Amino acid sequence: MARVGAELRRQDFVKATVKVIAEHGVANATTRRIAAAAGCPLASLHYVFRTKDELLYAVYESLFSLPQQSLDQVPAGTTASETAAGMLRQVVNWFSTNPDLARAQSELFIWAMRNRPEMASKIYSVSTEATEHALERAVGEQLDETALKAISRLLIQLFDGLLVAWSAHGDLERLHAETETACRALALLVEQH
Which residues form the HTH tetR-type domain (predicted)? Predict the structure, then answer.
């Protein structure tokens, strides 16, 4: 029987954890359930991840990079407001086509706020910084640093709010309508800067 390397096993556990969180929530994502979902012995999980927190942070890092990659694919609009709105549409498109990943990411962040505030703070800082960089790359020098920070934070807040609303109502058509309303609000903020 061939041995599986630690990095491959790590990826298996991260994928299994996403699946378990999406199905059962973070509170019910036991290491035993995660190991079973990965088809691996529990001892393997504890060999690859020393603590459950280490595993959860690895999951968040893997989930965080996915919507951020979609931000990098937004073509620059003719104005900063069009570009920012395009970024929001792109992220909403990502989570509507990857609902389990998006729900797991949201669930994990809410869990971290309650149980590991330092992890939640780190996660928020990293996501804010990454969003600022993506926006800056897309709009160039059209916005100053203060505007970049404000707009990036609003992008994250709109994304989170739209995800929570869509998770509750599940109506894709309504999600798109609400996204367009959010894009208009975002465009107004950008135009003020």
Answer: 7-67
Q: Which residue shows structure tokens 């960089």?
A: 133
Give the separation between CA 68 and CA 170, rounded to whole angstroms.
23
pTM confidence score: 0.78
Q: What is the pLDDT of residues 145-162, one digit of tens each?
A: 898 899 999 999 999 899
Closest CA to 147 of 161, 139, 160, 123: 139
Nearest to 131 by CA among 180, 91, 103: 91
Asked whether the beta carbons of 15 and 38 are under 8 A apart, the reply is yes
- The one-letter amino acid code at 147 reads A
Closest C-alpha among 15, 113, 4, 99 to residue 55: 15
The domains located in the chain, with CATH, are: 1-50 (1.10.10.60), 52-192 (1.10.357.10)
pLDDT 10s digits, 61-117: 787 666 666 666 666 557 888 888 988 998 899 889 888 888 888 888 888 899 889
